[in-house]
UniProtKB/TrEMBL annotation:
Keywords: DNA-binding, Repressor, Transcription, Transcription regulation. This is TetR/AcrR family transcriptional regulator. Residues 4-64 form the HTH tetR-type domain. SUPFAM superfamilies: Homeodomain-like (SSF46689), Tetracyclin repressor-like, C-terminal domain (SSF48498). The lineage of its organism: Bacteria, Bacillati, Actinomycetota, Actinomycetes, Pseudonocardiales. The keyword DNA-binding applies. Pfam families: TetR_C_24, TetR_N. Residues 27-46 bind DNA. It comes from Pseudonocardia yuanmonensis.
Length: 207
């Protein structure tokens, strides 16, 4: 009888190892120790640490892009509602693929090997979609932006990406509530940002 696959355990352990120690300091020995197998057994599944990193981040990256494309195709909702769904989706993926999604955020941007090019393209498409959503809200009058759509989109994405430093999944209901609080925070700036930017400029300069 063939041995049962340990692949799912190896992926989970690799995500923890990469997050805790960073890609450069993570080792296949350390990953194997988390699973309770020897380093050599991991080579039955992957050929290198780099290949294992790819496997860890592939699923959350593809899930994020698929969900984003679904939101873009939904033209029957207001921009604000679609933005709320985007933030809910992002938090859900952080929870469903914890900590693999955060490994993606921490490491993919720094990986220069050609095999990571598809992930960098996904990042660019994600940012372009968020920027397009913000710009649409400004055109329709839903949003009053404090800066250009490109800057605002990057601020929004930066807020979500920073969750890698503090977020721990607490269950579906609690994670959804958190997502809606983040949305409310973001929406306040999007709706009132233009007026507040003018107010900020009226403050006296320090001497």
């Amino acid at each position: 009888m063939p041995r049962p696959s340990r692949w799912s355990e190896i992926l989970a352990a690799a995500g923890e190892e990469f997050r805790d120690r960073g890609y450069e300091n993570a080792t296949l020995e350390g990953i194997g120790a988390r699973v309770g197998i020897l380093k050599g057994s991991i080579y039955n599944y992957v050929g290198s640490k780099e290949e294992l990193l790819l496997a860890v981040v592939e699923q959350p990256a593809k899930q994020l892009l698929a969900e984003l494309e679904r939101l873009q195709a939904d033209t029957g909702q207001t921009v604000a509602v679609r933005l709320r769904e985007l933030i809910r989706m992002q938090v859900r993926i952080f929870a469903d693929f914890y900590p693999a999604a955060f490994v993606y955020l921490q490491h993919i941007g720094r990986m220069t090997a050609p095999r990571f090019a598809d992930f960098r393209d996904m990042d660019a498409r994600y940012m372009a979609a968020v920027e397009s959503l913000v710009a649409e809200g400004a055109r329709t009058g839903e949003f009053s932006l404090a800066a250009d759509p490109r800057t605002v989109a990057r601020a929004l994405v930066g807020m979500l990406d920073w969750m890698q430093h503090w977020f721990v999944p607490r269950g579906e209901a609690a994670d959804r509530e958190l997502a809606d609080r983040l949305f409310a925070f973001a929406l306040g700036g999007l709706v009132a940002g233009g007026g507040l930017a003018g107010l900020a400029r009226s403050f006296p300069e320090e001497e």
